[in-house]
Every structure is written in structure tokens, then in C-alpha cells.
Amino acid sequence: MKHIPYNFEIMKLYLKNHGYSPAELDIMEDEKIFNLYKTINHKMIYDFQITLCQNNSFPAEQVKDYDLENQLKSKLSKIGKNFSKIYGLIDEYIDHYDYQEFLEILCMHLDTIPSSKIAKILKVKYRQLQQVWLEKIEQRFQVLPIEERIPLIRYYEKNQDNLAVLKRVYDESKDPAYIEKIKKISEVKLDVIKVFMPSLMEENYKAYYDETPEKLELISRILALTNAYSKKYLKELSISKLKILEDEIIRQNKQEAQDKKLFQKYTKAFSKSMASADDNEFSKVCIEAVAELNSEQLQMVVSFLAGKNKFFLNKFNTTIKNYQNISKIKISE
Hints:
By secondary structure, the protein is mainly alpha-helical. The protein has 18 helices and no strands. It has helices spanning 8-16, 22-27, 30-56, 66-79, 83-93, 99-109, 115-140, 146-158, 163-172, 176-196, 201-204, 206-209, 213-225, 231-236, 239-274, 279-292, 295-308, 312-321.
């Protein structure tokens, strides 16, 4: 679904499909049509978020099924050290428990087997299952806009230890109708934000923008320019802020390079003129320095040379006093 911004014929058709009669729409002012169109789309964004919460959320706690747990414990008490049966039970019940809870149950009822061995077996099983389900979910969600797909997949990856809910998403994603529903709603949401709230695109789709070549290249360039920021910190910034930061760092680096160049130029010139018997040479360097350097640059040069030569500051100030027409600041001791 794609809209052309402010195409009121398309907006009227859209509103007609949402229950407004042609007669109503014909007498509506453009502003009202626009606001109704935007309101309906905002509601669809809200509905989309509700859909995600209902279908894809990971609750903090799962309601325990005590009958299931008693059934598992009964089976565990009968298998002893039969590893083939242990593997079978793990496969049968793994999607009903999180890792830690399942490990505790197994260790409690398989006390003849070292807990470290059980933990290793269980961890491998969990990782295998998580990987399979996540890969399948990502594969089935390929039809979603990339801006929507990446945040969803990252969300599932972050919560992959909740096997019960991950399995539910995995099972539901087998249904083409479910995928089509999520696809349509996500397209509407993306379309509305692009058209009406483009400045919020990155805020709403941070997981997507964090992986775009533009952002990754910006971060790489900034890290190459300075070590003042960590990669983690930079990744939290928006692309627009990263661009501003890069420009500022480049400006500062250029300024620092210029400051260094001028510092070297005048410390060398002053040192040479101090060693000269010709006072005019020193005066000439003073005038040039005061004319070319700003107060901060001049202060750095004078402070450095004053620390190197105890006669420098007095000679510099005396020379400056002789040129009353120079309006630069006087460097004081």
C-alpha cells in the first residue's frame, strides 16, 4: 500500500473504504479529509502495536501446568541412566520450560547423572531448537518491510530463551494468512510514518537503522577521526546527530592542525629572533604573531616560550607596548 502525500483523491477513496459515503466526502474540506485520513492511520498503527503485543509478546512469567510437570517427573523417575530416553523426554518437554527451570527439574530427578552433564546436554538442545525456530521465523517474515522485519527478529533473538512463546510465534508463522495480516498492517504503519512523521522514522525503526550501511559507515568514520567516543555510544545516536558530530570533529581536527602549525611556526620564529642580535627581527615576529594569532593561540605560544626562556615574557610585553596602534590583547605574566 503506497500513498502519494496530499493526494486527496486517494485519501477520499481510502476513507470511502473505511465507511465514509461519497456524499459526505464531496462536501468535506480538504483539511478535514486529511485529518480523518491521518486519524484512521494512527489508529491502525496503534492496532498494529496491540497485535504485536497479543501475538508476539514475551510475558515475564508463564502459568505453570502442574499436570504436565507431574507427568514429566513421573517419566523421569523411571528412565534411570537411559540417555536415549532422556533425549526423548527433553525433545518432548523442552518447549514447555525455560532453560533454568527445566535444568532444575532434570537435575532433581536424575540425581544419578552429574548435573554438569545434564546442563551441557540441555544447553545444546536449547540452542539447536532456538536456532532452527529463529531461522524459520526470519525466513517467513521476509515478506515484511525490512524496517519492520529487523526489529521483530531482534526482539525474538533477545527473548529466545522463552521457548514456549518462541514456539507459538514459530507455529503461527506457518500460516500464510497470519503472515499476510502482519505484512499488511506493518506496511500501513510504515507508510503512515513515512508520509506524516518522516522525522520519526529512525526513532520507530532504530533496530533497522542501526544496521544500515549509512550509519555503520558514519560510525566507522567517526571512530577513525577520534577515540573520544565508544562504538556503543555512537550506535545510540541517530544518523542526523552522527552527521553533526562528524562535521564538528572534522572542524575541530582542522582547527587543531592549524593551531599546531601556527604554534610551531611562531615558537620557532621567536626562538630564532631571541638568539639574534637584531631587535628589529624580534619586533617583526611580535607584530606578525599578534596580527595572525587569536588570543588563545597567542597565549599558548607566549606561555610556552616564557617557560623556556625567563627573559622572553618581559621582552615580548615591552615590544608590544611600543606599538600602541596594535589592538591585540596584552599578554600578562
